[in-house]
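Hi R.,

Here's the chain you asked about this morning:
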Amino acid sequence: MTTRSPYLLDPIDNFCALSGHSTLLIDNKLYITTGYAPVIENGTTRVASSPWIRVIDLNEPFNLNRTASVTTILPPSIAPVNIPDNQGASFWWDPASSSMIYTQGAPTIDGSGGVIRDANLVSFGRPGKSWTGKYDSGNNSFGRWEEIDTPFLGQTGQVTSLRRFFDPVRRKGYIYGGTVVGDNGGNWNQVITYDAVQQTWTNQTTPFGNFDSVGAAIPFTTTEGKVLGILFGGTLNGTPLSMETIFIHDTETDDWYRQRTNGSPPIPRGHFCATAIKAPDNSSTQILVFGGFGEGHPSDVFALSLPSFTWIRLEQRSPDFLPGPGIRLQPSCDIVNNRFFTIFAGRSLVGGDTANCDTRQNALFMYDLTEREWIIDYDPDARDYTIPEPVYQAIGGNSSGYATMTEPPSGFAEPTMAELFAITTPSPTSSAPTGTETSIPPTETSAPGGKKASPGGIAGGVIAGVIIIIGALVWLYFRKKKRYRQIEPTQWRLMPFLPDQR
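And here is the predicted structure, written out as tokens:
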């Protein structure tokens, strides 16, 4: 006898779009979490969620117009129906315990949107709780995910922010700024840290103020093995950030710095994705940035090269449809086979918010960094990565590395930064995936004396299912209102992390 599905919709047949999700790449399989998801039902599109954990197998060749053929869904026996149906959640891999960590985040709009059959199983997580699942590398599969206690003293609601990453060496996860569920919106001055050894949370503040939830925080590993948080994009204290200003957090000493970039930066934006790839000889690291929401709806690809802090544009725009992703809001980014800059989902803004659905989950896009082109046929054996020509023309060296620009042309903002970003003898290495913009005046100085963040209480957030308010994007909207006519006012309320602008 066939067991009735606990879901009312099909993750592939009803797929239109997905945003607010998170991804992990394990054994060349892309794991994709829950998120906000307009769905196709009876020929029309409606607001819903995506309560499934999707898995795309990147070990076999396939055409990107047939992504469903290599997609599976983790069954309820592994990912229970009552896992948190959230957006903006943190999804981390802890190699020391061979476990994933799924935690924090805000409820999807309208909850499950009528996707989960039994409403009693709809869950959005709880403060002081997280989900984890053991991974068996022998058979390349997860065991059953389970909810565990992760105490967080004084937490009033779960935190949601796209500024997050996990340090696998110190086994700590970091979430910067963002909002807290239950506080009616607003961004908070906070850096919440998860200790995977103790399975507990702590909270501190930054010396700069309130970072919003739609910028980026990318981990950068120094030659000494120290992990630095690289923060950019979105807003700070309600003001749009220029991409010329980068914030650096030394997670070991808790010191903060602020550095000005060189080169032509991307336009200010939020809701984009970013990840990092190292040069073959480890002489530079490129933080790759795609998409997001900003003036003119960008679909460009940029690289921020470290340690020179140089912005380089790789592509002015991407094709609107496969093989390109077009204009995307809240896509995810990963590096596949140390060669392909891989985008999954995000809501297409071509012609309006989800006016064009990614039917049958054809929402995977790959930019070949070696050939500098969007591909339609994926070959898992293509693994030779060379640095794109615009990058080495800007920082020196060649396609194999050997960068000659090893610091910003005007120098680092603080002498300590020269030590942090020092390059030792180049050696072969591989990249690892990682994680938006501000308008404070550009500066060459850091927080005074590398000022440390001090402990601070955590408060605030968003009411369950309510959109997180982003002041900077309100500013962008009203400033450029006439340029955004293609997205109807009623559609703005469907955008998680964006204000209702009806």
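One quick note: The two ends are 49 Å apart (CA to CA).

Cheers,
M.
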